[in-house]
Amino acid sequence: MAACLSLAARDLLERPPRLTFTTTELTGAPWAAPGPPLSLLAGRDDVVAWVRHGQGLVGWDPVLRIEATGPGRIEELRAAWRAVVHASWWSDPLVRPGTGPVALGAITFSPSSSERSVLLVPGVLVGRDARGSWVTTVRARGQDPDGGLDLRALTAAAAASRGVPQAPGARVTPGARSEASWRAAVAQASARLRAGEADKVVLARDVTAVPRATGTTGDLLGRLAAAYPSCWTFAADGMVGATPELLVRLRDRRLSSRVLAGTARRRRAGGDQPADEPSALAAWLEADPKNNREHALARASALSSLEPLCSVVEAPERFVLTLPNVLHLASDISGVVAGDTGALALVGALHPTAAVCGTPTPAAARLIDELEGMDRGRYSGPVGWVDWHGEGEWCIALRAAQLAEGGRTGTGPQAPVRVLGGGGIMPSSDPADELAETAAKMRPVLDALGAP
Ligand SMILES: C=C(O[C@H]1C=CC=C(C(=O)O)[C@@H]1O)C(=O)O
């Protein structure tokens, strides 16, 4: 395994590393059967992942880490990745989304976060789409090509797919603030919205989960993906989760985005109480004025950010997205991108959306700074991947957690895990109800850890 080169995006521009990427098609039984790619991460820490419905990308052994902070972080990462691609050689007989040079990244919500925004180039990246599987290996130019990946061993690992171990169980303790103090912040936010400071603000909170036994990031991801197959299960630099919200997908100049805002939580069966019936909850959600107003604001703000960048934008009627823990009002937006705008430039134009910040953006961001009382880190920031010609797929890091030490080897999910969740606050919000909503949004990660 080659050492990982860690560079600030700005410094990298002067002298980008010269990498060689080799994509090879993976054929044969294990690559066609259900199982890979996520099963390849079983037992591993320090991984990257982007998987939905059993397809996507999983990688390990990072060779390059590009870091940026501050208001220019997205643009700096974009420029640095472009410089890396320009300085690289690659061989890619497949030329499909996700083949050839690819970097995965996690970007902070706030420009003033003390955490770093990163793009990571894994030394081994296995991909799978509807047409088949492949692996891309990366080495620094001049590095011994024979020190590369043993394809037979990789295929044997894919064939020996083992089940995901049970969740270890975890103890949950308060994060930056207690539940009572978060409810007080929601009450203050609603009062300030009623006074006209903004239309909507999204407030989040965190809890700390301490697993009761050692586990690995790969196993945690396996449990998340099994429970939430329609969400994007992701991992980059220890930021992990299973998010339902697509910020932007850019493929062949066509853009897609899924805006979510407005939530009904599903209660499980308990005692003699039956579980909530999704169709009844959906009907309630579709008729609820507070949730509809919240969704309309998020949808309008996404459309106004995208319209200047696209030659065509389409946004059919909103619909209800049903997940195991919650239901959301959802709008799918599609468009054709004008000019040569890449995925990271679109991420920069869209972030922060009204689904994670509020509206109008500057007033909502100010309320978050004043009332939330914590650094969100990469939670509710963009997470995703970018390829050699700037296309890719980026979601919003929701239903997510930050593992300690970036999830690096030896610090897997036994070390404290910071789990975060938030909700759109409106003038009429009920603090207790908003708190329960954040708890429902934390369930994916807490269940994957086995927390009660
Ligand atoms: C901020 C979160 O969810 C956002 C996305 C969907 C619905 C939301 C809501 O109804 O409040 C939030 O805007 C979160 O999951 O932490």
UniProtKB/TrEMBL annotation:
MF annotations from Gene Ontology: isochorismate synthase activity
- Which principal EC class is assigned to this enzyme? isomerase
* EC assignment: 5.4.4.2
Alphabetical list of Pfam families matching this protein:
Chorismate_bind (PF00425)
UniProt keyword annotation of Iron present? no
Keyword check for Isomerase, yes or no.
yes
Its keywords, alphabetically, are:
Isomerase
Instruction: Tell me what this protein is called.
Output: Isochorismate synthase entC
The species is Actinomyces howellii
